[in-house]
Design brief:
It contains three helices and eleven strands; from the N terminus they run αβββαββββββαββ. By secondary structure, it is mainly beta. It has two domains: 74 residues, no CATH class; 65 residues, no CATH class. Strand 2 and strand 3 form a beta hairpin. The protein is elongated, with a radius of gyration of 21 Å. The model has no long low-confidence stretch (mean pLDDT 88).
Length: 161
């Protein structure tokens, strides 16, 4: 007797829904001078690296080179030491926007719904919506979430509501 799973086994309820991809690139790289067990960094559009923590950016060059064989900056990356000098690195492409230096705060959320715009900076309401955020605008209802990368550059994520 041969087992035939038939059509019920092809249903979403049996196998589940495909998960969203977490990384745009996953690579390995040798970084013998890099210490620690893991590292987080962002590559800006010009190739400059911003590091979360106390790591020298030049030590991340081997990881960034390996990632950039698959995707171009800007991206956010997370590296984990695997064995000795070998690191596994996952990278996700991001959007970067420049806001005025005077724009304060570290996190923002702009919600546009039915033509109404509401901006929160560090959880507090703000009425000063930078023009650069308008450039990210989509038709209809949407949300822009951002977090500061340096003095003027912000990582921005735009989604539909």
């Amino acid at each position: 007797m041969v087992f035939d799973p038939g059509s019920p086994w092809n249903e979403v309820g049996i196998h589940g829904i495909q998960q969203a991809r977490e990384w745009d690139a996953v690579v390995t790289a040798d970084a013998p001078d890099l210490t620690g067990a893991e590292v987080h960094f962002v590559a800006l559009p010009n190739g400059e690296l911003i590091v979360d923590g106390e790591v020298l950016t030049e030590l991340l060059t081997p990881l960034a080179r390996a990632v950039e064989e698959t995707i171009r900056p800007p991206y956010r990356a997370h590296g984990i030491r695997r064995d000795g000098a070998v690191w596994a690195v996952g990278a996700l492409g991001i959007e970067v926007v420049a806001l005025p230096v005077a724009f304060e705060g570290d996190e923002l959320e702009l919600v546009v719904r039915a033509g109404q715009r509401v901006l929160h900076v560090d959880g507090m309401p703000s009425f000063d919506v930078p023009r650069a955020l308008d450039a990210l605008a989509r038709r209809g209802d949407y949300v822009v979430r951002g977090r500061r990368l340096d003095d003027t550059l912000w990582e921005a994520e735009v989604g539909s509501l």
